[in-house]
Amino acid sequence: MDLFNSLRISSSALQAQRLRMDTISSNLANMETTRTPEGGPYQKKSVVFRPVGTSFEERLDRSLRGAVQGVRVDRILADTSEPKLVYDPSHPDADETGYVAMPNINLMDEMVDMKSASRAYEANVTVVKASKRMALKALEIGR
C-alpha cells in the first residue's frame, strides 16, 4: 500500500463522516418540526455507509490483493416509525383530540451519534496528519 492510498481512504472517511454530521444536525434542528412539505412531522434521517467499490469484480480484486477499502455513503434512510404523539391542544397542528404528531427523534441518541461521528472524524484527521509527517520524513532521507 502506498502513502497516497491511506490518504484516499482517510479522505473518503472524512467525507462520509461529514455527511453523517450534517444529517445529525438536520435531525437536531428539526426535533420540533410538525409540518413538512411532504406532510406530517419531520422524519429522522440516518446515514448508511458501504465500502468503496460497487461491482463484484472490484470487491473480489481488492479482497484478493488484501487491499483495505475506503467508505462512502450508500444512502440516507428516513425513519418510518410512527411519530410521537404529544398532548397539546393549543398547538396549531393538533388534531381534533388535542394530540400533535411530533418527530420521533431522541436527543440522547442524536448526541451519541454526533460524538461518534466527531471521534471518527478526528481519528481520520490524525491519520492524514501522520501520513503527511511520514511523507515529509521520507523526503528528508534524500537530503
Features:
143 residues; alpha+beta; two-stranded antiparallel sheet; 4 strands; elongated; Flag_bb_rod_N; Flagellar_basal_body_rod_CS
Word description of this protein:
The mean pLDDT is 90. This protein has helices spanning 3-29, 56-65, 107-141, and strands at residues 45-51, 71-78, 84-87, 99-102. It is α+β, with helices and mostly antiparallel strands. Helix 1 (3-29) runs antiparallel to helix 3 (107-141). The protein is built from three helices and four strands, in the order αβαβββα. A two-stranded antiparallel ribbon has the order 1-2. A two-stranded antiparallel sheet has the order 3-4. The two termini are 24 Å apart. The chain is 50% helix and 16% strand.
Indicate the multimeric state.
single chain
- Strand percentage lies at 15-25%
Which strand order spans the largest sheet, edge to edge or round the barrel? 1-2
| Radius of gyration over C-alpha positions, nearest whole angstrom | 22 Å
Classification by helices and strands: alpha+beta
* N- to C-terminal distance: 24 Å
Mean pLDDT: 90
Please bin the fraction of helical residues.
Answer: 40-55%
Q: Low-confidence parts lasting 5 or more residues at pLDDT below 50?
A: none
Main beta sheet strand tally, sense and closure? 2 strands, antiparallel
Total strands: the figure is 4
Organism: Geoalkalibacter halelectricus
Protein name: Flagellar basal-body rod protein FlgC
InterPro entries: Flag_bb_rod_N, Flagellar_basal_body_rod_CS, Flg_bb/hook_C_dom, FlgC
Main location: other
